[in-house]
Write a structure and sequence with these properties.
Layout lengths: L7 E5 L4 H5 L6 E10 L3 H12 L12 E3 L1 E2 L2 E2 L9 E2 L3 E2 L9 H8 L3 E4 L5 H10 L2 E4 L5 H5 L2 E8 L9 E16 L6 H24 L6
Parallel strand pairs: 1-2, 2-3, 3-8, 8-9
Antiparallel strand pairs: 2-11, 4-7, 5-6, 9-11, 10-11
Length: 216
């Protein structure tokens, strides 16, 4: 875990491998550049199928950031102007555990994120690919929306807006916490181990409290 828990690093996307490997669990970061977002399970399934088939996605995510952030994009009234993204809100990443190892390895992602973390299979893929997981503030919709500069692109628009593969230009998105780094360190694993270590003591205390008290 980072020795400097108070530092906030500003990252310019896309990131190279050295930049990602310099991040440590507990670091606070903000991001500027292009991010791609989707919370659609059909979207993840489609992405995995294309990666496994050796087909190119409609955008190049190599070295990029793919986040489980929900958004609603409003198209320009005349169909010619620039669409507008109204908000961003993090979704629970564990919903996508089955898909993320393939996407992390196959797309060469440098950053993934949302809330709630990812399982050990994704952590192993992140170590191999050089990728970190960022945890965004749950319920931080207003704060995250302030960082949106404009919509860069929107693909698979036959889906509802939140399921589309949307790329946004952001400025100082965050702050977000490095919850899993590219070296396999994880806040979630640390919490699990600490909770497991405390469990026997908690159970012992509960058992003692359940014992009938002797009457004098």
């Amino acid at each position: 875990m980072s020795n400097d828990m108070n530092r906030t690093r500003h990252l310019q996307l896309p990131l190279d491998l050295a930049s990602v490997q310099s991040l440590a669990v507990g670091d606070m970061v903000t991001l500027s550049g292009d991010i791609t977002i989707s919370i659609g399970l059909p979207t993840h399934q489609r992405m995995v199928q294309m990666v496994q088939a050796g087909q190119a996605l409609p955008l190049d995510l190599h070295g990029g950031a793919f986040f489980h952030l929900s958004s609603y994009v409003v198209d320009a009234p005349d169909g010619q102007g620039v669409p507008t993204a109204l908000y961003m809100n993090p979704s629970t990443s564990t919903r996508y555990d089955a898909y993320m190892p393939t996407l992390i390895r196959g797309l060469g992602l440098r950053l993934v994120g949302g809330k709630g973390g990812l399982d050990r299979h994704s952590v192993a893929a992140m170590q191999e690919a050089g990728c970190a997981y960022l945890s965004f503030l749950g319920g931080g919709c207003t704060l995250l929306a302030e960082s949106i500069a404009h919509v860069v692109s929107s693909h698979w628009n036959e889906y509802i807006s939140q399921f589309r593969l949307v790329t946004l230009r952001v400025r100082a998105l965050g702050p977000a916490t490095v919850a899993i780094d590219a070296h396999g360190n994880s806040i979630y694993e640390d919490l699990r181990e600490r909770a497991t270590a405390r469990l026997p003591g908690i159970l012992d205390t509960l058992n003692q409290q359940r014992q009938p008290k002797e009457t004098p």
